[in-house]
Amino acid sequence: MLLSTSKGVSAALLYAALGLFGCGSDDNGQAATRPEPKPTRRQAPRPRTQPAVAPKAVCTLTNDSLAGQPFGPEPTVQELLSVGATIKTRKPFANLHEAGQMDTILTLQHQGNEFEFYRTPDKDLLRQAIITNFRPDYGRRLRATLNESARQNGGTCLQLRLRDTERANNVSATFTAGQPSIARVQPYFD
């Protein structure tokens, strides 16, 4: 009798254990089934990105051809006037080399850009240009020069200073989001 009692207790324990682990029946008398495990979706490993390199604060580059011809072909007074530039100011200026000759400092405005020329009777010399709008042809050419200068310098810069070996022609630019936002061109003239 002791043997049959121990078999009954073992069977009861087995049924109780099965009931605890969900293999028993549910309320309506049907056997409960476990939901099929869904395959886990594996995500492709993300490629490691290099940490963003902060742009240099100031880059200085000496390059005679880029500093000497930052626009490529330099815009002239006649070209600028023909595409809609307006004369902002005219100031008489005594020529330092020719006694009695009066020259003119002529300032032109074109699509937000400003050009200052030293005008003599026989030629116009660009003294300075401040470019904030790079959409005109001369602006696109200047942007290409500035981007090439930054590339030659090894990457992006917040400010770029470009000059020739004699430090006579100077171009300085401020970059925003990797593109020039303002540039000042100061070619050499006597």
Share of residues in helices: 10-25%
H and E string: HEHHEEEEHEEE
Strand coverage percent? 25-35%
Which consecutive residue ranges, at least 5 long each, have pLDDT under 50? 1-5
Question: Order of strands across the biggest sheet?
Answer: 1-6-7-8-5-4-3-2
- The Rg value, from CA coordinates, equals 39 Å
State the distance separating the first and last CA atoms.
126 Å
Main sheet? 8 strands, mixed
Number of strands: 8
Q: Mean of residue pLDDT?
A: 83
Backbone shape: elongated
Helical run tally: 4
Descriptive tags:
190 residues; 4 helices; 8 strands; alpha+beta; eight-stranded mixed β-sheet
Verbal overview:
There is one protein chain. The protein is of the alpha+beta class and 190 residues long. The chain has a domain at 56-186. The chain is built from four helices and eight strands. The protein has an eight-stranded mixed sheet with strand order 1-6-7-8-5-4-3-2. The radius of gyration is 39 Å and the shape is elongated.
